[in-house]
Amino acid sequence: MAQTNSGGQGTNGVADESPNMIVYRKMEEVIAHMQDEKNGIPIRTVKSFLTKIPSVFSGSEIVQWMIKNLDIEDQ
């Protein structure tokens, strides 16, 4: 059975400051900013031939958002 623990420590007693956890936290922070309703990536509904597709964004919109918000200079 899996053990749960508190205090931000893994099952081996080492704090969750491993390189993987640091990267995961940074990724979560970027995703939260992407989902921001005011400054995030614009989400829209696209009308297809017979249906409407909700919650759509394009790859170019993500790239443009990243250049604008993450101080990236190159595409």
From TrEMBL:
GO terms for cellular component: cytoplasm; neuron projection; plasma membrane. Gene3D superfamilies: Winged helix-like DNA-binding domain superfamily/Winged helix DNA-binding domain (1.10.10.10). This is DEP domain-containing protein. Residues 37-75 form the DEP domain. PANTHER family: LP21163P (PTHR45746), REGULATOR OF G-PROTEIN SIGNALING 7 (PTHR45746:SF7). It comes from Pleuronectes platessa (European plaice). Keywords: Signal transduction inhibitor. SUPFAM superfamilies: Winged helix' DNA-binding domain. It comes from the Eukaryota. One of its GO terms (biological process) is negative regulation of signal transduction. GO terms for molecular function: GTPase activator activity. Pfam families: DEP (PF00610).
